[in-house]
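User: Show me sequence and structure for the first protein, then do the same for the second.

Assistant: Starting with the first protein.
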Amino acid sequence: MKKILFLLVAILLSIALVACSEDKPSSSEDNNKATNTKTDEGENDSSESAEEESSEPKTFSIGDTAEVGGIKYTLKNVSQTDERNEFAGTEPAMVVKVEYEVENGSEEEIPIGADLEVYDGSGSKMELYPLDNTLGSLQPGKKIQAVGHFGIQEGPIEVYFKPLISFEEPAIFKADIK
């Protein structure tokens, strides 16, 4: 508990220091400004439209690997299961099994199981369904084959992967249910 509290305080202090620092453009911003002002013959328009297109998040599919915050996520499989937990508080239309691999490329131990969110075909966020789900932690430089079960109303699904304590954008995987 003390480690988590210390980590949260360190993160908040880092954010405060960044917010209070001078507002200097980075060298990549300088390069972009130089590129945008080179000519007035339409190059500026094409670079702006390229920026607009790249602002949409890239989506991945089954078998792809994405890295977020030094952590690599690979969506291995998404399948429907007939298995049910008689003590579950919900009765979803279907339960999907999400199989994925996590490789910890960071220098810190990371939690596993709270690093993904699942949205069904209607865009609703789904809760973890109480079956044999992978929960725990992963040491630096190690891999794990993980599983999460989710009760959904309809497919296809979107799976968002990102470490529990991360300010980076998640990796988004779209998958049809087998």
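Switching to the second protein now.
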Amino acid sequence: MTRFIAACVQVNSRDDMSDNLARAATYARDAHAVGARLIAFPENVSMMSFGGENVRVAAFLEDEHPGLAFFGDLAKELEATLIVGSLHVKARDEDRVANRCFVIGPDGNIIISYDKIHMFDVDLANGESYRESKTFRPGDAARVAETDYGKIGVSICYDVRFPHLFRDYAKAGAKILSIPAAFTRTTGQAHWHTLLKARAIENGCFVIAAAQCGEHPGNRQTFGHSLIIDPWGNVLADGGTDPGFITAEIDLDRVEEIRRMVPSLQNEQSYKPC
């Protein structure tokens, strides 16, 4: 399928999983009602807890995760492909959890899962401090989802700052890059739009980036502005700062058109590193 409607669901997740899931599903159903059949959700869609111990307590083994079962049922209900930005999944062999994205087909089955590779460990000028690596175990594998809507390269949030990951996805045949996020308000205001447009332009791909918005437990603030961007870098839809959803028509033929105009994937040369 080369032409279809894609959607990003934008939410303000907090520490009540049932409420978070219900709100996300409401927006997904609304997006579906206006034609969306590929629906993306943000990072931490089922839970935004504060503090490593609270995150660990609220995590589940994958086959026991209520959020995963919920989205599987939702995919079947809507007969849509869902990109579940991330759920917190317990590891059996260590204390840290995986920040895991799931791509779920319209039959409710998992197409692929992806564990966030790059950990956001930083102290910001406004006093906010993040140490994801203390709570989350980084993934070690890039994943491309084979869907009814073509190949989708999957990432999560901070991964967007590592362009080689997305280059590898484009070389592997991905025409869509999924970048669900809970981007901080500070870094979002500075870099969110620029980074996402760059990933789209340099790889000749559509970018679908569902985002968290608003204030969360622990006085965390996220930027919002879920984006759908075409391969030329045009913003097709911007979610602003409030919960809701956005949609845009995706025409995958546009990918080949842009890649012919700027054939950087073919022109790329190997070289010796410094």
